[in-house]
Amino acid sequence: MRFIPTALDGVVIVEPEPAHDSRGFFARTFCVREFGAQGLETAFVQHSLSHSAARGTLRGMHFQRGPYAEVKVVTCTKGAVRDVLIDLRPRSPTYRRWEGYDLTAANRRSLYVPKGFAHGFQTLEPDTEVSYLISEFHAPAAATGVRHDDPAFGIAWPLPITEISEKDRNWRDFAEAVHT
Ligand SMILES: Cc1cn([C@H]2C[C@H](O)[C@@H](COP(=O)(O)OP(=O)(O)O[C@H]3O[C@@H](C)C(=O)[C@@H](O)[C@H]3O)O2)c(=O)[nH]c1=O
C-alpha cells in the first residue's frame, strides 16, 4: 500500500499496490502491520456500506462527538464520489479547512479520516457504493453534523444536489453550534 499525505493534517490517501498476473490482481486494502507502521488506527469495530441510487446524492457532513469520535477509512467500491472533509479540531494547523478528494471504483483510493473531522460526499455517478471501516460503534446520541452549504466553510460541491436527507438539510450553522 502507498500512503500519501494530503493538505489536511493527518488525512492520508491509501492506494493499493496490486500484484497483477494473467487472472487479474490481488491487493491488500487494509493491513494492521502497514497501518500500524504509519501510526494509523488499526482497531476497527464496524465495516459498513452505503448505496446511493442517484448521481448528485449528498450525504454529510457527519461526525460523532467526544469519546465516540471515529476514525474512518472510506472507499468507493462502485461508481464515484467527491469525498469532502472539514477539519474541526480547534488545535489543528488546518482547523476549519475543507478539502475534496475523488474516490472512485476505478482509482481504488481510500481516504483515512482521523478523529475530529466532519465527513461527507456527493455521488458523481448513479448506483454508487461507499464502504467504511469505522473505529467506534454507532452512537446516535453522539452523532452530529454540519451543513453541506454552511457559509463558515463554503464547500464547492461538484453537482446540483439531487437527493439529501432531512437531517442533513437541517444541521444548524456551525457558528451558532460552536458558541452555544
Ligand atoms: C451511520 C449509521 C447509520 N445507521 C442507521 C441509522 C439510519 O436508520 C440509517 C441511515 O443513517 P444515516 O442517514 O445517518 O446514513 P448516512 O447519511 O449514510 O450516514 C453516513 O454518512 C457518511 C457521510 C458518514 O461519514 C458515515 O459515517 C455515516 O454517518 O442507518 C446505523 O445503523 N449504523 C450506523 O453506523
What does this structure look like?
This is dTDP-4-dehydrorhamnose 3,5-epimerase. Its EC number is 5.1.3.13. Homodimer. The chain has three helices and 13 strands; from the N terminus they run E-E-E-E-H-E-E-E-E-E-E-E-E-E-H-H. The chain is mainly beta. It has a single domain (41-179), classed as Jelly Rolls (Sandwich). Strand 1 (2-5) and strand 2 form a beta hairpin. The N and C termini lie far apart (43 Å). The structure holds dtdp-4-keto-L-rhamnose (TDO).
Indicate the topology:
Elements: E1 2-5, E2 12-15, E3 19-21, E4 24-26, H1 32-37, E5 46-52, E6 58-64, E7 72-78, E8 80-87, E9 98-104, E10 110-113, E11 117-123, E12 128-134, E13 143-145, H2 166-169, H3 174-179
Antiparallel strand pairs: 1-2, 2-10, 3-4, 5-12, 6-11, 6-13, 7-10, 7-12, 8-9, 8-11
The structure holds dtdp-4-keto-L-rhamnose.
Residues 48, 50, 59-60, 62, 72, 119-120, 132, 138, 165 line the site of dtdp-4-keto-L-rhamnose (TDO).
Catalytic activity: dTDP-4-dehydro-6-deoxy-alpha-D-glucose = dTDP-4-dehydro-beta-L-rhamnose
Family: Belongs to the dTDP-4-dehydrorhamnose 3,5-epimerase family.
Active site: 62 (proton acceptor), 132 (proton donor)
Characteristic key phrases:
globular; RmlC-like_jellyroll; 5-stranded antiparallel β-sheet; 180 residues; EC 5.1.3.13; isomerase; 9% helix
- Strand percent estimate: 35-45%
Strand and helix order: EEEEHEEEEEEEEEHH
Number of domains: 1
**Which CATH class is shown?**
Mainly Beta
State the major sheet: 6 strands, antiparallel
Helix content: under 10%
Total beta-strand segments: 13
CATH architectural grouping: Sandwich
CATH topology heading = Jelly Rolls
Structural class: mainly beta
Spatial extent as radius of gyration: 16 Å
Average pLDDT across residues?
97
